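re the bet — no i am not wrong, look at it urself. input seq straight from the record:
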Amino acid sequence: MASPNFGTVIRNVRLPCTDHSETSAWDIACLDGRVQSITSSGSCIPHDKAIVIEADGGVLVPSLCHSHIHLDKCFILGQCDPLITGSLPEALQVTNKAKAEFPKDVDNLYARATYLIRESVEVDTTVGFTCLDMGLQLAKEWAEACHIQIVAFAQEALYEFAASTEPGPNYNLLCDAVSRPDVSVIGSAPWNIELIMSLAEKHDLHADFHLDYNLDPGAVPMVWDVLQQMRQRSWCKSSGKRVTIGHATRLGLFSDGEWAELKRATDTLPLEIVALPQSDVYMMGRRTINAPQVYRDHGVRVALSVNNGSLDPLTLASLGVALFQVGTEPDWRVLLRSVSTTSKEAIGVMHGGSVGGKSADESDGVVPRVGDPADFVVVHGARRWQSAVLSPGFDRTTFYKGNVVARRRAQRWNVNTGGEITN
């Protein structure tokens, strides 16, 4: 539903403000992909050819973002052997067996991937470029509906043998993958930070690492190695390229001093952290980085993403309320931001603003301003932004570059109120 010449107007919508104005209704006019005006409800007079969307008093929140998700490994339960022991080694074995079948059924890979903004696709000797080719195809097909970053990801070791002195076939495949013009991120499990950083620097890419995935107090956190590599390469925020650390459960054991050191580092270096509660809690025995507490106590923002879990980011924010046992509005707001604005900052598609001298609304990027990108979700049925976190409704309309790109509505019936059920 695009109206590039005459714009889009969202009528009668509530904004996620922190003051009494959260109950006020507004009209938001969008033109050329950005917010053109924000005026009191009923005061905006749109062009007669503009698209007008009635929000019916619903709440507008920032567009949601998957900052860490695996396009190729989603929805494969039906393709996996049943788990007998439920152990991690068994799960890895079963997953790798299913993964080996991906190149044999590309149509299935495509169908699963279309359910899913940063998407990791693996490149190695098992799947070759099958997953990468599909990811790049989908990114092109969905370019008008959402922003998709494709990560060429090395899940398997880059050195063929433990005694190898030179990188092996997986590394060679990865080098070929990142030379493709539409790949914007290179990533890996913690096989060799220096190799990955060198390739990222050479091809002007973001870097994404899965590391510090443990709860061992005796293990030296690898995040310090990443920061050292960034300093040696003069990796700075002005470059626009982020280095993202996924999982990072070991950071949850940090002392106040270690968090202070990390905060000082991230004030000058573009290092971002993405926690993955659904998988981290399962794999790590109910432990993941407590995003609200880390921001409240140490000023470090942590994005949250679904990895291989349930796909709705707002449901993930809602899970965080119980998981982190937070009952205050500032903490709920951190959770809302963690699956939207913070996640977009983490993958480099949005830059964080300064908080100096500004209200919470102006500084946290949750409330839109004139000139901002017109990327939103209207949660219909909600009347306050808190409801979008505590009980996110199903009925939603999604806007990208000012255009409606998705809409869903629930059909309701019960025996007391009666009525008809229609298809």
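see?? Residues 353-360 have pLDDT under 50 and may be disordered. told u. also Residues 185 and 206 are 5 Å apart (CA to CA). so pay up
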